[in-house]
Amino acid sequence: NSKSDNYYGKAARGEIPLIVSVNNKDEIASLIQLKKQYLSSAKMSIMGGAEAHLVASHLAAADIAVILRPGLCTPANFDSIHCLTGAPLTNGTAAHVLHQHGVKIGLGVLDNSLARNLAWDAGWLSVTSTESYGLISEAQAVGFITTNLWDIFGLRQDDLFTNDFVVWSGSPFAMNSRPVFSYSQQQGIHTIV
Question: What is the DSSP string of 121-171?
């Protein structure tokens, strides 16, 4: 019952995000219909989304975000058999198609030890974007692994994040670039050697 004061009720009313782990296009389509018919106020997002590109326009219309996990997929099982691996095998990835349709995208990992690669995955999406799918800028790619995830998980508090930053020696996606210093309100400037 959406009027209940439990987690289901809060998710149904959109007070907390509803994140559903799914890869298969048919299951994603069912979730889109569920949101349209019964959970119109819910802040629903897809976690996984290997085949989300096949229903991208419907996801955009239903305002359902997708956390691609992993960001660069290979068809590992039946539920992800139609995923887009990217160049040179396919023209673009799920992220490129979803971005073209205006779906909010986040990148995730299947294993915590792979989190260190998120910047490279986001950078790769930016570098390999083409005009046919809509160019993904470096700023948008950074959003895939930062602000978009904050928004999807309902963590965005503007006053909490506006004053913290990191300065890089070049593009954060370049292999020869590194953080030079960081700043936070709590600790001030921290030089990285």
Answer: HHHHHHHT--TTT----HHHHHHHTTHHHHHHTT---HHHHTT-EEEESS-
Q: How far apart are CA 134 and CA 103, in angstroms?
A: 12
Angle at 134 between CA 128 and CA 137, to 5 degrees: 60
Place of tokens 């600790």: 187
Whether a cis peptide bond, with omega within 30° of 0, leads into 75 is no
- Whether 96 and 144 map to the same domain: the answer is yes
Domain that holds residue 87: 7-156
Both 151 and 173 in one domain: the answer is no
Rounded to two decimals, the pTM is 0.86
- List pLDDT tens digits, range 14-50: 999 999 999 999 999 999 999 999 999 999 999 999 9
Q: Are 14 and 71 in the same domain?
A: yes
Pair of tokens at residue 24: 């298969």
Task: Enter the DSSP assignment of 109.
Answer: -
Preceding peptide of 179 cis, ω within 30°: no
Which ranges of 4-133 does DSSP label H, i.e. alpha helix?
Answer: 7-13, 25-37, 56-61, 94-100, 118-127
Number of structural domains in the chain: 2
Domain annotation covers residue 130: yes
Cβ burial of 165 (10 Å; 0-12, 13-18, 19+) is exposed
| Residue 132 in domain | yes
Residues 94 and 120 placed together within one structural domain of the fold: yes
